[in-house]
Structures are given as C-alpha cells and as structure tokens.
Amino acid sequence: MFSFVIRRVALLVPIFFGVTLISFGFIRMLPGDPVAALAGERDMTPERHAEMMARLGLDKPAWEQYFDYVWKLLHGDFGTSVLTNRPVLDEFMELFPATLELGMAAMLLAIIIGLPIGIFAAVKRGTFYDQGLMGLSLVGYSMPIFWWGLLLIILFGGIWGLTPVSGRISFLFDVETVTGFLLIDSLLSGEEGAFASAVSHMILPTIVLGTIPLAIIARQTRSAMLEVLSEDYVRTARAKGLSPLRVYGLHALRNAMITVITVIGLQVGTLMAGAILTETIFSWPGIGKWIIFSVFSRDYYAVQGGLVLIAMMIMSVNLVVDILYGLINPRILHTSS
Amino acid sequence: MNQSTINSIESGPRQPSVLRRNLLEFWYYFSESKTAVVGLAYLVGIILMAIFADFIAPHDPTIQYRDCLEQAPSWGGDKCNFLFGTDYAGRDMLSRIIYGTRLSLVAGGMVVILCLSIGIVFGVIAGYFRGWVDTIIMRIMDTILSVPGLLMALVLVAILGPGLLNAMIAISITYLPYFVRLTRASYITENTKEYVVASKVSGAGKFRIMFITILPNCMAPLIVQATLSFSTAILDTAALGFLGMGAQPPTPEWGTLIAENRDLMLSAPWTVTFPGLAILLAVLAINLMGDGLRDALDPKMKRS
Asked: Per-residue pLDDT tens for B141-174?
C-alpha cells in the first residue's frame, strides 16, 4: 500500500512541472508587450518600462525566470493580481468556499438522484423505465449547461418568480464570514431568514451544475451494475433465495461501487469547467466567475495563479481517489506493481 | 512467404468483399439500435441543412428587418412572418440558426480531424518507441488533462485571441490526450499479437508496421471516441462562444447567438430558447449515434 502511494505521488511531479511550464509560458506567449500586459499600464516611458522589466524579473534569462517562478510557487507565492494588487492566493482562497459549496451541493444532488436511477435502470434492464431513464440521462449529458441555466432563469425566475437568480444571498442580509460556506455562516449568524435566502439562491445553480455529473453517474452506475449482475456470485445469491434488496443492495451494489466511486472522483474536473459557466450565469461569486473576469480584464497573474491552483486541486483530488480506489479494490495494488 | 505474396494477399481481389461484409455486419449491429439510427438520420439531416443553408434559410441571416424587432414567432400574418421570431436587431432567428449549423458542424468536424490526425501519430509513436519518447509524450498529455478542458481552452484563446478558428484549435488541444492515450493503449495491445510478429519477421518496415499493419486494428475505439468528441466539441465551441471567447458577433454561431440575446431572454425568450435547443438536439443526436457505434464496434458488447 505504502509503495503504491509513493509511486502515485511520484507521478505527480512531472505533471506539476508540466502545469507550471504551461502557466509560465502562458504569460510569455501573450500577444503584445509582456510588461504592458502585466503592469496593466499603457504608454510607459522607456525608463519606467526598464524599471518594470527589472521588477518583474523579465530581464533575466528564461530558465532563470522559470526557476524563480517555481521557487515562489513552492513557497506559496502565486503572484499578485494587477487589478486588486492583492496576492492571487488570498483572492483564490476567499472565493474558493463559494465554489466548493456549490460544487458539493451539485455533487450531492447528482449522487442522490443519479445512483438510484442507475441501479433501478440496471435492475429493470430493457424495460420502458430503463429506456426512459437512460434517454433522459443522455439528454442531461448532452445539455449545453449555460443554456439550461438561462432556461431555468426564464422559467423559475422570470415566469414563475419562485427563486432568486443571481448571487449567493439576498442583499438584505449581512452575514459575517466564518467558514466561507454561506449555508453554515447564515445559520451561525442567527439572522432570521438568512439561511432560507441562502438555500433559495443555491437551488438553480445546483441543478445546473449537477446535471451533467448526474447523467454520467446514472449511466455509469447502470453499466457497472449490469456487469456485476451477470457475475456468478450474484446468481448464487439469488439461487440461495436472498431477498432482492439483499442481492442488489449488498452483493451487487458493493462491487459496482468500485467503478462508481472512481467516476464520482473524476467529476471534479467536469465540475470545475461547469462552475465557470454556472457561476457566470448566476453571478455566483466563486472561482469560475473570477477566472472569467480575470481573463476579460486582462489580469493575467490572476489567470496564471488560478490555473496552477485549480490544476493542483484536481491533481490532489485524483490522487485521493486513486488511493481510495486502491483501498476498496486491493486487486489494483497487486496488478500495478 | 516473401513481401510480394503478402502484398498480393492484402490487396488481392478478395479485399472489397471483405470490406463489404464488414460494413454489412457493422450496419446489422448498428441498426439494431433504433435510437442510434434516429441519431444518424438527424445528423445527416442537419449536415444537409448546413450544406444547403443558402437555399433552405428563408432570410439572409444578417439582414435586419427594422420593422420587426424582437418579433415573437409567428406565421400566416400580414407582415413579419418569422417562424422562430427575430432578435434584437430584427434578424430572422431561424435563418441564423440554420447558418449556425454550418459553423457548429465545421467546428466539431475540424476538432475531430485535428485530434484524430495528431493524436494517432503521437499515440503510435509513443506505442512503437516506448521508453523516454513514450514517457515525454504521455507526461505532456497528463499535464493537459490535469487542467479542466474549458479552462485550458480559455487560457489558450487568451493567448491566440478570440475567434472561431482559435477556439477550434484550443479545443483540439484539450481533447488530444484522449486520442493519444487510446491509440497508444490499443497499439500496445495489438503490438504483441501474432500477425504483427509475422509481419515483422517477413521484413516489413517501421512505418508499414505502425500505420498499415497495426493502426487499422486500433480504429474501432478511436471511431467511438471521435464521435463522442464531435458532440462535446460542438458543446465547447458553443460554450466559448457564449463566454465571448469563441466566434464573435455578428457571426451566427449557436453559442454566440445565445450570448448576444441574453439580455432579452425575459422579454423575448425565443431568441435564447431556439439556439440552445439546436445545440441540445445536435449533441443528443450525435451521442445517440455514438452509443450505437460503440455497441456495434465493441465485440464484448456483441456477445451479450
């Protein structure tokens, strides 16, 4: 087990350097004068230009610049936003809970609905229910989620007026930030209605962000279940006269879960890409909206830092998923060594 | 057996009939799935629509009918008959969507062609040479995969500049790892089989083994992957267009159509609803077809 973890972590080293090379190259490949792009100033005097060159370290050779950059990254310095003049890491950490909260809600929705749908469809294989549910999940999988979000805004926000359509909480409430998770903070604040407001703001973004993971989980659970259901031990369990709940729930599902957990873990990247669109549509103050805003306002240090931080986050989640996978499926430990 | 006899076997008169039989067999399995056939039919339909957009579209997609701004869908009236309504500038939504089909299909197709051609070459090289060449190629692919596709595409577009062509290039780069990995994996599996050893023994050259002997046997999973990437490429092109980083207005690309009418979505919901529906249906049809393709090409599924 230990050597498995070590090997898996060692795999991350080249990827880390790859990502930093991309993010380092990103700034250098931008069209135009890098100094002007990074300093956010135009029409600089030659002296000022030279001063900025020196201050940004652009007068050194490229490899030296790269090592400086990685050195700083390893010490937690992800650059400074040109727009706000604050460390990128601080901005990221401040906005990250909003994305995490939304992402977890979406994932929870996807699992709570997707898992039973997949199991049910597998058990009822070939029936009308199976075809209907799988048809629906293919629609979900094919959904342009930015359009889906706008459609829900038109229906729920515009026509029926049921839910708010932007932000995390009504401006009437001034909830103090404790954990960064508004659902918890609004409860802690003790303000009447704050929690309800936070929940109602979350409904539509959660549905939109959860749609594609839900569809994927439903489809994958179904095929994992189908594979397991044809195994001998399931037939034996049935032949022994065990109740369907025991056969499906205990014998089959536990083995099908091995695949499903991996699939769930792999959704983090999908969620992050989805968050960019979802947060833009619903003005959700998280990482996705921040990245888009940074791209448009040419705050390239923020984009660069965000890119590395997001990649590192996804790498660590994948690492955890792989280790978990090794724990629940010991076969993998032996085959890979 | 010398080289010439092998050649005569491979390119002998039996080959067309083998191809024909394979195609017939493929169609037999593919057409078992009715939904896959529906998907294929829809795709053929929109391809024809894209090709003949000039004849099918009722209006010029760029002409602004200033008397009919934000006209709701209507037909049979005295004036302003627009089946899908008009947008903020009085342009016919239906015609814009029909022309948008062209852009989306071309974008999706270009991404797939780029990924297939570059992905196969890198995958085969990695699989053939192994060692450090393999390691370098695969680590680069891992790096690309560690950043969410849309974010990577955004960053690339920031470098290249917004536009449909650059969006296509950016999206291709983010899909490349899937093709490289798939090609490499099936190449390595095939590489140890007897027919490859036989061809090596009879003195076939490097490139012959790589691209003529082995590659055709790796095509099935690649075709499935290409189909699925075709649909996600359409989605991602639209997403980039929606974010303002893909096709630029007034280009009638589907995602751009949604973005430029976003402010009207409550007063003129048809301007947003129809383009999105066009995206959804196209992607759904291709995915249905992809599911059928996978079932038809995957021998493991055939038996069950």
From this structure: 988 988 888 999 988 888 888 889 999 999 999 9
Interface touch B139/A276, C-beta < 8 Å: no
For the CA atoms of A296, A302, A303, A306, what is the dihedral angle to 10 degrees?
-140
* Distance of alpha carbon B246 from alpha carbon B238, whole angstroms: 8
Q: Å from B201 to nearest chain A CA?
A: 31
Quote the minimal CA–CA distance from A28 to chain B in Å. 9
Residue of A nearest to B229 (CA): A142
E strand intervals along A5-73: none
Dist. CA A91–CA A291, nearest whole Å: 11
Structure tokens belonging to residue A270: 């999908």
| Burial zone of A89 (CB within 10 Å; 0-12 exposed, 13-18 middle, 19+ buried) | middle
Inter-chain residue contact A26 with B155, CB threshold 8 Å: yes
- Tell me whether residues A26 and B235 touch, CB distance under 8 A: no
Summarize pLDDT for A19-72 with one digit per residue, the tens: 999 888 887 787 767 677 666 666 777 888 788 777 777 778 888 888 888 898
DSSP state of A175: P
pLDDT, tens digit, 9 for 90 and up, residues A187-214:
887 777 888 888 888 999 999 999 999 9
CB contact under 8 A, A147 and B280: yes
What does pLDDT average to in each consecutive run of 10 residues of chain A (337 residues)?
Answer: 82 88 84 69 76 77 86 88 87 92 94 92 90 93 93 87 82 77 81 83 93 93 87 86 82 80 81 91 92 87 90 88 77 56
Q: Is the peptide bond before B250 cis (omega within 30 degrees of 0)?
A: yes
List of chain B residues whose C-beta atoms are within 8 Å of the C-beta of residue A150: 258, 262, 265, 272, 276
Do the Cβ atoms of B143 and A15 come within 8 Å? Answer: yes
Dist CA B298 CA B304 (whole Å): 11
Do residue B272 and residue A151 have CB atoms under 8 angstroms apart? yes
CA gap A305, A308 in Å, rounded? 5
- Residue A249 touches partner B, C-beta closer than 8 Å: no
**Alpha helices (runs of H) in B146-253, residue ranges in sequence order:** 149-160, 164-191, 194-201, 206-207, 219-242
